[in-house]
Design a protein that fits this description.
Layout (H helix, E strand, L loop, with lengths): L2 H18 L2 E6 L3 H16 L4 E8 L4 E2 L17 E2 H8 L15 E4 L2 H5 L4 E4 L6 H8 L8 E4 L4 E4 L2 E4 H9 L2 E6 L4 H5 L4 E6 L18 H8 L4 E6 L2 H23 L4 H22 L5 H6 L1 H13 L1 H12 L3 H8 L7 H14 L7 H10 L8 H4 L4
Parallel strand pairs: 1-2, 1-6, 2-5, 6-7, 7-10, 11-12
Antiparallel strand pairs: 3-4, 8-9, 10-11
The chain binds 1,4-dihydronicotinamide adenine dinucleotide and 1,3-dihydroxyacetonephosphate.
1,3-dihydroxyacetonephosphate binds next to helix 9, helix 12 and helix 13.
Length: 392
């Protein structure tokens, strides 16, 4: 495309946005949590028509899917061959693969093309397993509005050979926009079934961003609350993006440890010990490597201790780690067998955090994180955990 037609296209885009005076929201991701968050966001865009366009685009990593032979809500005979997941979602208003049996609002529009999904979007909600975010950001480069604002619901940390960053920072840096974070004690299936839970949104944009057109409502804590809060999903908005992101990322390592001890049938005291040590390491890690991180975020907000508790009991990392011990199999084998395409985040986070600590000679200062990594690699046994985390 020539530079004048690119400029024309951008001008048309800006004119449409400015005329609308409302935010257009896109969710990038449609897994278990991506679909549950799309449901919440779509309920709220419909509930706040003065702030948001009702339609919410949900980007779907396209795949063919065959409906199971029976379904409580659908006549499966009409879908007897595999179909595109986006077609199924838009026809049945359900993400039949990643969030089955939950009706999605009809204003959620599943979209297989990333550029189409983000076109004209002023608020982007990133919700994909963390291993895919770099490739997604590369595909989004040049496709988004320069004044778009973003929120990351991703639980993981971005580790390279010599640095560590939050995914909100990575997204912001790669796309040249601001990105906050959402994280909490939020098992997706429970949230989607509208069982009560809390979450934490961190949003603290610097003053030098590309300004929003004056016609659009400023994106502030009030807009964040309007976008995510529901009667069954209580939102607290804070400024500590590092604390919120790290709580969600690091508790996945602890949840694996908790699954390991449950796999051995060691009971609640053992699990409480693992959780206590894990919480200390989460907080220490935040304070040691992220100067803006607040200690209280780990103890007072849903994204800290509450997420640790729920994940160490009912999360996928916990379940797969427990089964791997019970069955004597590798956790990756269990993940493949029981999660139907959903992805564990704790196994890669344990590896990535270990790489970061090892490079700095700090493995011994984080005995639980290190133990989980060594057990996953088969270099230590679950039975050795108490010795590995014993204090002097
Ligand atoms: N599921 C849950 O209960 C919760 C998950 N989270 C976090 O939310 C984030 C997203 O997780 P979920 O939505 O649960 O995802 P998921 O675990 O259900 O992952 C599957 C998703 O990955 C997509 N995918 C597969 N291959 C891909 C590729 N090559 N490129 C891009 N996408 C691909 C699939 O299409 C599907 O949408 C994670 O960081 C997770 O830790 C946070 C709170 C709760
Ligand atoms: O983050 C979660 C709950 O808050 C879900 O954790 P899992 O990915 O282990 O299921």
């Amino acid at each position: 495309m020539s530079s004048s037609s690119v400029a024309k296209q951008r001008l048309g885009q800006l004119t449409r946005i400015m005329a609308s005076r409302k935010h257009r929201v896109t969710v990038i991701g449609s897994g278990n949590w991506g679909s549950a968050i799309s449901k919440i966001v779509a309920e709220n865009t419909a509930a706040h028509p003065q702030l948001f366009e009702p339609e919410v685009h949900m980007w779907v990593f396209e795949e063919q899917y065959q409906l199971p032979s029976t379904h409580p809500r659908f006549d499966v005979s009409k879908h007897s061959t595999p179909q595109e997941l986006t077609t199924l979602i838009n026809t049945l208003n359900e993400n039949v693969k990643y969030l089955p049996s939950i009706a999605l609002p009809t204003n959620v529009i599943a979209t297989p093309s990333l550029p189409d999904a983000v076109r004209d979007a002023t608020i982007l909600v990133f919700n994909v397993p963390h291993q895919f975010i770099h490739s997604i950001c590369s595909q989004l480069n040049g496709q988004i509005l320069p004044y778009a604002r973003a929120v990351s619901c991703i639980k993981g940390v971005d580790v390279s050979a010599d640095s560590i960053s939050l995914f909100s920072e990575t997204i912001g840096r790669k796309l040249g926009i601001y990105c906050g974070a959402l994280s909490g004690a939020n098992i997706a299936n429970e949230v989607a079934a509208e069982k009560f839970s809390e979450t934490t949104v961190a949003y603290d944009p610097p003053g030098d961003l590309t300004p929003l057109p004056e016609e659009l409502p400023p994106v502030d804590h009030g807009v964040m609350k309007a976008l995510f809060h529901r009667p069954y999903f209580h939102v607290r908005v804070v400024n500590d993006v590092a604390g919120v992101s790290l709580g969600g990322a690091l508790k996945n390592i602890v949840a694996i440890a908790s699954g390991f001890v449950d796999g051995l049938g060691w009971g609640d005291n053992a699990k409480a010990a693992v959780m206590r040590v894990g919480l200390m390491e989460m907080r220490k890690f935040g304070q040691q490597f992220f100067s803006s991180c607040r200690s209280e975020t780990f103890t007072e907000e849903s994204c800290g201790v509450a997420d640790l508790i729920t994940s160490c009991n009912g999360g996928r990392n916990h379940r797969c780690a427990m089964l791997s011990v019970k069955e004597g199999k590798k956790i990756e084998e269990i993940e493949e067998r029981v999660l139907n395409g959903q992805k564990l985040q704790g196994t890669s986070t344990a590896r990535e955090v270990n790489m970061f600590l090892k490079q700095r000679g700090l493995e011994k200062e984080y005995p639980l994180f290190t133990a989980v990594y060594l057990i996953l690699r088969g270099e230590a046994k679950v039975e050795d955990l108490p010795k590995m985390i014993e204090r002097e």
